[in-house]
Write a structure and sequence with these properties.
single chain, mainly alpha, DUF8007
């Protein structure tokens, strides 16, 4: 059985070869929970600010 370290450290491994997964930055942001929660947090902050201070 091969471990992940053995597979990653092998001489024939090419990290820039054809077998890889590539994502666009926009697709990654759309799927990222951290980015999604950041947008939700910003919208909640803006809504709370409008509630407390009124429209500016």
């Amino acid at each position: 059985m091969t471990t992940v370290v053995d597979a990653a450290a092998s001489e024939d491994r090419d990290p820039f070869g054809d077998d890889r997964i590539e994502l666009d930055a926009s697709a990654l942001r759309a799927a990222s929970p951290a980015a999604w929660l950041g947008r939700v947090s910003a919208r909640l902050d803006a809504a709370a600010e409008r509630f407390v201070y009124g429209e500016r």
